Amino acid sequence: MANVSSDRADRVVAAINDLARAEGTPVSVRHVCQACANALHASGVALYVIGDLGLGEPVHATNPVSERVAELQVTLGEGPAVRALADVHPVAAPDLSNRQAQRDWPIFAAQVWSMGIRATFAYPLAMGAIAVGTLEIHRVVPGGLSAAERIDALLYADVAMHLILDRVHDVPTRAEHELFASEFGMRWAGVHQAAGMVSVQLDTDLVTAFLRLRAYAFSTGRRLSAVADDVVDRKLRFVPDPTGDAGPETYP
C-alpha cells in the first residue's frame, strides 16, 4: 500500500466516517462495506472473517442478494472469497459465465449467476501471508475493475482489517459487538448455536457438526441459515446411526 497516495487513502477513510457520522454510531464493518459498494458502483459487498472454527464466516453483507452469495460460499466451500482467504491474494471473477469461473467454481458460478450476479472480486484482509478475512465485491454486470477501483478495493480491505485488529480481542467487548452488529451477523449467530446443538446430538466436535449442517443444506437445496433455524427451533434433529456415523436427519 506504500504506493497509494495519502489523498486517496484519506478519501476512503472520509467516506466511511461520513456514513458512521450520519448514523451517529461508531465506525463498523457495515460502514466499510457500504462505502466500498458506493465507491465501486457495486450491487453489494460482503465481509468475511476467520471464525472460531478456523474458517471464513460472513459477518456482514449490504443487501439480501449479497447475503445469499456469502452464505452459499460458506455452504459450498468454494468461490472467490474462499480462494482469496486461502491464497491470501486478490481473486477476480469478472464474468461468472466464462469457462474459467465454471471450471474453478462450477456450482457456485451457476447459482450466483441465477441470482443476477455477473462478477465478483475478493480481497483478503491480510498482514503479509496471514489473512484475517475477505472483502468481496458483487456486480450485476460483467467486466473487470479499473486500476483505480482495484486500489480503492485494497484500501477498503485495509481499513476493515485494521478495524478488526483494533477491536477484536480474546474476551468479547462492547466495541467488538458494535463492530459487527448487523441483522446478518445476528442471524449467523444462529448457525453457531445450531452447530453446537448438532455436535451434542451427534457426539462430535464443532467442525464436524458444522460440516454436517453444510452438507444437509447443500443436499436439500436450502440456505444454511434456514437449516440452522430449524435445528435451533427443534424442528430438525441430527441422529447418529448404531455404527456411530451420522444417520438420517428427522423431524421429531
Walk me through this protein's architecture.
This protein has 252 residues and is α+β, with helices and mostly antiparallel strands. It has two domains: 6-171, 2-Layer Sandwich (Beta-Lactamase); 184-246, Arc Repressor Mutant, subunit A (Orthogonal Bundle). 54% of the residues lie in helices and 17% in strands. It has helices spanning 6-23, 29-39, 64-76, 80-87, 99-104, 106-114, 147-167, 174-180, 183-202, 206-220, 224-232; strands at residues 44-50, 56-61, 91-93, 119-127, 130-139, 237-240, 246-250. Strand 6 (237-240) and strand 7 (246-250) form a beta hairpin. Helix 2 packs antiparallel against helix 7. The longest helix has 21 residues, at 147-167. The termini are far apart. The model has no long low-confidence stretch (mean pLDDT 87).
Helical content stands at: 40-55%
Determine the strand fraction and express it as a percent band. 15-25%
Major β-sheet profile: 5 strands, antiparallel
Name the overall outline: globular
| Count of helix runs | 11
What is the compact description of this entry?
With 252 residues, the protein is α+β, with helices and mostly antiparallel strands.
Name some characteristics of this structure:
two-stranded antiparallel sheet; alpha+beta; Arc Repressor Mutant, subunit A; 7 strands; 252 residues; 5-stranded antiparallel beta sheet; 2 domains; globular; 11 helices; Beta-Lactamase
Structural topology:
Blueprint: H1 6-23, H2 29-39, E1 44-50, E2 56-61, H3 64-76, H4 80-87, E3 91-93, H5 99-104, H6 106-114, E4 119-127, E5 130-139, H7 147-167, H8 174-180, H9 183-202, H10 206-220, H11 224-232, E6 237-240, E7 246-250
Antiparallel strand pairs: 1-2, 1-5, 3-4, 4-5, 6-7
Helix pairs in contact: 1-2, 1-7, 2-7, 9-10, 9-11, 10-11
